[in-house]
Structure formats: C-alpha cells, structure tokens
Amino acid sequence: MDSRNEPLPSQVIDRLKRIEGQVRGLQRMVREGRAPAEVIYQMAAVKSALEQAALHYLQWDAQRHDAPDRTARSVRETLDLIAKLL
C-alpha cells in the first residue's frame, strides 16, 4: 500500500472525541458555577490533550511522506507547525 494514502489513524480521531467530551464537561462546569481553580485545571488538561493530538497528527503526516518526497518547504512548514505548539 502506498504510505501517502494511509488513512488517519483512529487514535487521533479517538483523542479528538475525548477532547470534545472534556470541552462539554467544561461548559457544564462553567454553567454550574464551579470553582475557578477546577475550571482552569480542566482547561489546562484540554490544552495538553489538544497539543498531544496535534503531535500525533504531525507524526502521522511525517510518516506517510517518503523522505525523498519531502521538500524543504514542506519540512519548513512542519517545523513551523511544531513551533506553534510550543
């Protein structure tokens, strides 16, 4: 199978679904007037989960491209995306 046509791994989609659930929980916490510290801790957890999902997505993208097919521009774009995560 051509690695450039590999489907997005289900673990990335699964992570995004869990994050969606976390965000819904956050909305509920805010509506219920939960303590700010509780809400902020959960927001930090969502942020961390999104960063991890983004890294997994970038790993998948990098692995599906053969090294000779990678142009300097695509490598630079990937590095720019990683820098935005940091």
Topology of this protein?
Layout: H1 10-31, H2 36-63, H3 72-85
Describe the structure.
With 86 residues, the protein is mostly helical. The chain has a single domain (8-85), classed as Up-down Bundle (Methane Monooxygenase Hydroxylase, Chain G, domain 1), CATH 1.20.58. The chain is 74% helix and 0% strand. It has helices at residues 10-31, 36-63, 72-85. The longest helix has 28 residues, at 36-63. The two termini are 34 Å apart.
Give a summary of the structure in a few sentences:
This protein has helices at 10-31, 36-63, 72-85.
Q: Sketch the major β-sheet.
A: none
Q: Secondary-structure element sequence?
A: HHH
Terminal Cα separation, in Å?
Answer: 34 Å
The unreliable regions are: none
Give the count of helical stretches. 3
Mean pLDDT across residues: 84
Shape: elongated
Identify the notable features of this structure and list them briefly.
single chain; 86 residues; Methane Monooxygenase Hydroxylase, Chain G, domain 1
